[in-house]
Amino acid sequence: MKFQLTNPLLTLGVPQSCATRTINSVAKVLASRHATFIKMPSKAEAINIANEMFQKYGIHGVIGAVDGTHLHISKPLSSGPVLPERFFNRKGYYSINCMGVCDNQNRIRYWTNRHAGSAHDARIYSESHLKVILESQYEAECPLYLLGNSNFSFLDVTKLTLLLKLYIVKSQFY
User: Fold this and answer.
1) Which of 33, 96, 100, 117 gives the lowest tally of CB atoms within 10 Å of its CB?
2) Which contacts of 84-89 are long-range, i.e. CB under 8 A and separated by 24 or more positions?
């Protein structure tokens, strides 16, 4: 883990090894309890979120937003099947590509960080558990949507069985 001079832990005189251990400990605790805090809304909660979104923004059936982000990492070491090139992203640095969903109150509803930086957002979605959740959790009588940027535009939304569709909003509207 790289620490920059602007890191507040370093200005307090905390050694990098201590900061790294602390960050790792906190991350492990959060990861072990992720199902308590990070979960897609129930059907009833999703309908409530959609109603709130309609009242506030006038868009029918929206329950959240999906997007990808790159977490900058140092160049991985070559070991076994891990190829450092897979982590080199289109922006010119090594990263882990993550995808998340948040709701109308900015609560994280889904998160995955299992892909190397070279993976495209649409691929991450198509291989994610989120896709399974969206295809199985909601009923066809109540179509619900996620807002996403154009990185998700070529997904075959008809495969989502018309239960929960991925609503595409071009990046210029953000």
Assistant:
1) 33
2) 85/118, 86/116, 86/117, 86/118, 87/116, 87/117, 87/118, 88/117, 88/118, 89/117, 89/118
**71 - beta bridge partners?**
96
pLDDT tens digits, 46-92: 889 999 989 988 888 888 888 888 888 888 887 777 788 888 888 99
pTM of the model: 0.70
Domain shared by 4 and 78, yes or no: no
Range of the domain at 88: 39-173
Domain total in the chain: 2
Whether 69 and 155 map to the same domain: the answer is yes
